């Protein structure tokens, strides 16, 4: 379980005890129910990480709401968007093994994360990772209810595929952008699991020996 769940849960249990002591005991059921919800919401189950070279795994639990292609700096790119409802596990995991080349936090709005425009307008954290799958971008995008994005790594850190890297509190969206040509393994509308569902398999590429300056992630 994520520590936040323990903090919220214990605080609400204390509130329930205080309410039961000062007021009608039955009213204490409300904070107790909220405590149970937070303990459940911040669950962090173990996952079996696929050991497939070039595999790009889902960075989050949720529903695939968009699969699209675009051009960036003359190169084809593919984007997969995953919507996380309040019922999904909200722990984020690295989609690939590699080194973090850049992290960019963009302040923005808190609109419905299912809307296409949210990828550009909503508050988000953009992480650029370079590994054997090439340059992969992971976006943590705040949603209508989300008000805090957590990312626990820093530039220069080496990540393993499926490694825990943070979370987004409450409903949100996570995008993964990777080189075109990767073999797709999921379809629109499919429910995926962070760290264990393979989204695509990219042609293995040699890892650059040093960091590179990158253009702004789309």
Which features would summarize this protein structure in a list?
218 residues, Glucose Permease (Domain IIA), 2 domains, 3-stranded antiparallel β-sheet, 3 helices
Span from first to last CA?
33 Å
Give average pLDDT, whole number. Answer: 84
Shape: elongated
The percentage helix is 10-25%
* Strand order of the biggest β-sheet: 9-5-6-7-11-3-2-13
Rg (C-alpha, Å): 19 Å
How would you name the oligomeric state of the polypeptide chains in this document? single chain
- Order of secondary-structure elements: HHEEEEEHEEEEEEEEE
Structural class: alpha+beta
Major beta sheet, specifics? Answer: 8 strands, antiparallel
Q: What amount of the residues lies in strands?
A: 35-45%
CATH top-level class of the largest domain: Mainly Beta
Instruction: Give a count of the beta strands, DSSP E runs of length 2 or more.
Output: 14
Number of continuous helical runs: 3
CATH topology of the largest domain: Glucose Permease (Domain IIA)
Low-confidence stretches: 209-215
CATH architecture label of the largest domain? Distorted Sandwich
Number of structurally distinct domains: 2
Question: How would you describe the overall organization of this protein?
Answer:
This protein folds into 2 domains: 39 residues; 147 residues, Glucose Permease (Domain IIA) (Distorted Sandwich). Helices cover 17% and strands 36% of the residues. An 8-stranded antiparallel β-sheet has the order 9-5-6-7-11-3-2-13, with no helix packed on it. A 3-stranded antiparallel β-sheet has the order 1-14-12, with no helix packed on it. It has a 3-stranded antiparallel β-sheet with strand order 4-10-8, with no helix packed on it. Helix 1 runs antiparallel to helix 2. The longest helix has 20 residues.
């Amino acid at each position: 379980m994520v520590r936040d769940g323990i903090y919220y849960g214990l605080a609400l249990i204390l509130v329930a005890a205080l309410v039961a002591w000062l007021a009608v005991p039955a009213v204490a059921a409300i904070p107790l129910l909220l405590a149970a919800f937070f303990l459940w919401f911040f669950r962090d189950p173990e996952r079996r990480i696929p050991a497939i070279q070039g595999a790009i795994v889902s960075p989050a639990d949720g529903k695939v709401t968009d699969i699209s292609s675009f051009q960036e700096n003359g190169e084809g790119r593919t984007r997969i968007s995953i919507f996380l409802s309040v019922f999904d596990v909200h722990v984020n995991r690295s989609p690939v093994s590699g080194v973090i080349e850049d992290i960019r936090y963009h302040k923005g709005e808190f609109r419905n994360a299912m809307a296409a425009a949210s990828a550009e307008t909503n508050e988000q954290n953009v992480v650029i990772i370079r590994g054997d799958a090439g340059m992969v971008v992971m976006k943590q995008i705040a949603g209508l209810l989300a008000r805090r994005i957590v990312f626990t790594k820093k530039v220069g850190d080496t990540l393993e595929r499926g490694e825990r890297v943070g979370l987004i509190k409450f409903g949100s969206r996570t995008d993964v952008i990777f080189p075109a040509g990767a073999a797709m393994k999921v379809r629109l509308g499919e429910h995926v699991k962070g760290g264990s569902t393979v989204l695509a398999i990219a042609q293995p590429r040699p890892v650059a020996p040093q960091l590179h300056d990158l253009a702004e992630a789309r």
